[in-house]
Write a structure and sequence with these properties.
By secondary structure, this protein is an alpha+beta fold. The chain contains two helices and four strands, in the order ααββββ. A four-stranded antiparallel sheet has the order 1-2-3-4, with no helix packed on it.
Length: about 70
C-alpha cells in the first residue's frame, strides 16, 4: 500500500507525494459517511495541471454496483 488516509493524513499533497508517477494504481476509498468507491489508472497520477489520457482507466462504486469508463 502506497498511501492510507488514516495513516498518512488526508491531504492531496501527501497523496501526490506518495502516489505520483506510479503506474497501475488501484485506489479504494471509504468516506466518513461509509461510501465505498474507487478507480484504476494504468498511467499513474501526476500533480501537474496537464491532462493525461488513459484509455484503460475506470471508476467504480461498491454502493451502486456501477462501473464507469473514465473517458466518459
Amino acid at each position: 500500500m502506497l498511501y492510507s488516509g488514516t495513516k498518512d493524513g488526508d491531504s492531496s499533497k501527501t497523496f501526490h507525494e506518495k502516489c505520483d508517477n506510479i503506474q497501475n494504481q488501484l485506489v479504494l476509498v471509504k468516506t466518513k459517511e461509509s461510501l465505498k468507491f474507487g478507480g484504476y489508472t494504468r498511467i499513474g497520477f501526476n500533480s501537474s495541471n496537464s491532462s493525461i489520457i488513459d484509455k484503460d482507466a475506470f471508476l467504480f462504486s461498491f454502493d451502486t454496483m456501477k462501473y464507469y469508463n473514465a473517458i466518459e
